[in-house]
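notes to self, project folder thing:

trying the whole complex as one job this time. last attempt i did each chain seperately and stitching them together was a nightmare. two parts in total, labels are on each line so i dont mix them up again. if this works i'll redo the older ones the same way
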Amino acid sequence: MTQDDLTPWQDTPLVQALTTAGTPAELSGEDGAMAAFRASAPSRRRRHVVRFLGTGMTSVALVGVVGTGVAAATAAAAYTRSLPEPVQSMVHDVLGPIGVPAPHPQHKSKQHLLTTPNQVALPESVSTAAPPATTQSTPTPSATPSPAVKGKQSPTVIIPGAVSPSPSVSGLPSPTPTASVTPTPTPTPTGPAGDPSTWTISATGSRLEVRVHHGVQVSGTLLDADGNPVVDSPVVVRVHLSGAAGWQREAVRRTDSSGSIQAYLDDLTENTVVVLGAGHHVHSTPLRIVVRPVLTVSAAPATDGTSYLVTVSADGGQPGDAVSIVKKTPDGWVVVGQATLDDNATASFSIPAPKHKRGFVVQLPATKAHAISSDRFVLEPLG
Amino acid sequence: MRQEAALDIRARRPAPTWAAGEPVAVRSAAEDDLDVALALAREGDEVGFLTLYRTLQPRLLRYLRVRTTNGADDVAAETWLHVVRDLNRFHGNADDFRAWLFTLARHRAVDAARAARARPAIAVADVTDIASVELAPSAEAQALERISTEHALRLVGTLPADVAEMVALRVIAGLDANTVGEIVGKSAGAVRVAVHRALNSLSGRPDVSAVEVSS
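result (full assembly):
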């Protein structure tokens, strides 16, 4: 996305108002959209259902915790027409062709969805018919697998910090109409910290902004399903650089006695996303690090004696980045010069000498590689 | 002889409206990382999808409020359902996704408008006529009030429909001129000219200039 030709208006109240962050009212349909997303995810995706807990993304984490109750219940509840009407309607729109009914006209409450979040285990396959009415039982984390149930592990929706679904749960609302498909136990042996796939890892902060060439201390905590720290377990620090195709393994740390790890990312020169991974598809929310370039402005009178040669050096900028110099007038900000950074991250401008001492602003707009950066300088009359 | 010292170092402080701490035009982290979020969402990652939704839904809704007279929320919800359904088949980067999302929304809006014409609604309550809304408050009120997103959308809504849509796609949706041109069937140059003129026109209004922004 290029916004270069809109730079003169980026600072106007109109554009700011049009592009300001979303309000809660504008995001009021989030639950419905998330429910549809969960319901439409193919079976291979469900293994990745929320296992995040990021301290810096509390809202996301809360959505994960509260929403996971909905997530956990959504697909199955959809078959029992137990979802709130709008959500049921959305899920019906997506999964109607495979049997999810439309909302019941007398639907009343979604309360049970939130009060029994850990009761639901979604079978791998989704049936094409509504499930039989079943009673729900409350699983316990200490339940042992029933010897009668063996086989492939069922993907389950795990609530961080909550009890794990019992593998022996038999009264779950199964979306499958056939008796041959039964929720099966988790065959993974559990150690002192339990099933690793139920661990959660959090990364400190959700977004950091640093000056170019500065570093960031990244820390995280690995907890088991009961909220206890997982000690001496490897955690991989992966980074994604802007413009890069994939993730790089930056470091591997072992958790200390409090389940924490720390890593220092040094000399950051472009926007970076960091994710902590503990294996078993357990990873933290992305920690975004935005790098702010440093602008250096120098000016000297040109040989014609009527203008200045202004040179802008952008440490952290990239060749081709647009740079603008603007001045404020009674009518608003006016662009007096635009140029792009050369291979040395430098741009030159010829600015007519002002009649009076005058301030200018140089701006390097944000790109995917760096944040916006601006600086102010003053030119005096020549002669 | 080369004369230096034209710079007043003491004056090199952040300009009042471009404060160094939070520049107004800084892209949000979600925008910076939409590529990552998209990749995660396509893998079924809920946080990735949530990032996409939270980043784009407000802008989608604002675009639809400019594009349609009513039912923007319903059209937006239908658009996201379409996205959810076809996300597996989508190929491209975040910019492509943004273009796809707003193209879907536009098609849905057209469908909704056709349906509305086929089944005209009967107003049973007072209807606010946008054209009658006071757009130029008094100087006193202007000094006290801040421009809100709703007010800004109403202002864009005063533009000719085709121009308003181009402004919405270019500014609100954040699409580049080429993409906007493809969507609305005009050249990129025509889009740039129309958007620039519209922004100049709107930014020069007395009720828009020199006021703060509130959401």
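what i see at first glance: The first helix of chain B runs from residue 29 to 32.
need to look closer tmrw
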